[in-house]
Amino acid sequence: MISIVLTHFNKGLLLNRTIESLQPWDDIVHEIIVVDDHSSDPEWVKNAEYIVHTYPKIKVIQNIENKGPAIRLNQGGFAATGDYLFFMDSDDVLAPNRLHVFLNEMQKQQADLCYAKKVKIHDLNEIQKHTATVWESSTNVLNYMLKNNIMQMCVMCTRELFLKAGGCNEHLFIQDESLALNLGKHSKKIISTDLHSVFVILDSEETKRVRGENRLSRHLEQQHFDMFFTIHDFLNNYPEIDQENKTILVKKALSTYWKSIRKTPQQRFSDVLIYLGSRMNPLKTWDKHHQHLIEYFNQLDHVRKISP
């Protein structure tokens, strides 16, 4: 009934921990699709053979090129055959029985989209402490997601919704924001909960400000690039969205530009004016300066720019 899609690149045995947390023996798990993005880890081939042998519901999709998680998430999503799709990062941990919680509530409320809380912890025992569930719902889905800043990898949707939304923007490297926007644009009803469900297990040295070497969240320049073009492309694809939602998106895009440039030698007084304008009249500021912003992000050297 549920197809689980994991994009994978050099996660080592953390992938195995993730798979175990998904309770792969559970009857509601139809399949677990692991889409490998051409891992360079010499142990990967051996581990791929191990997980396929150990977990009968595992399907591994191997690739001969590294294209990034957005393309690989789509690859897994379009290959999935379950009625519902659940997406999660391949080094995180899902709390026990959460898939049952999500599925039951989606069916009860006739929702096609579900989001739950993703949190960072150091202690695995913390996972057992979170059990209280309070649900919210909305049929004004895109607006609800934007106002609540729902753009993370703890999402379950119907396969029908995923196919209609077209998955992620494959011109970008990081998938989270474009997946959320595309699903939100086409969803009829979302349910969400603050119940802690997916856990990012930090090393003892890691904090919110110091991330591990193998985490995409460490590469802020890539985050800024992908966030900006997620919004830019979304606005181009859906020019008919209402002014309230467009204003929220434009504010986020302008804020992303300011975060990217404010501590660099390229910052000029005109950028301060763009920042101030984004607070007073974001749509006018966007119309006047968005071509300049495009040129700025396109000249960044240390980001992955994807050609599908």
UniProtKB/TrEMBL annotation:
Main location: membrane
Pfam family, one: Glycos_transf_2
CDD domains with a match to the protein in the record: Glyco_tranf_GTA_type (cd00761)
Glycosyltransferase 2-like domain boundaries: 3-155
Signal sequence segment: none
Subcellular localization, as worded in the UniProt entry: Cell membrane
Keywords noted in UniProt: Cell membrane, Glycosyltransferase, Membrane, Transferase
Protein's name according to its UniProt entry: Glycosyltransferase family 2 protein
Species assigned in the record: Acinetobacter terrae
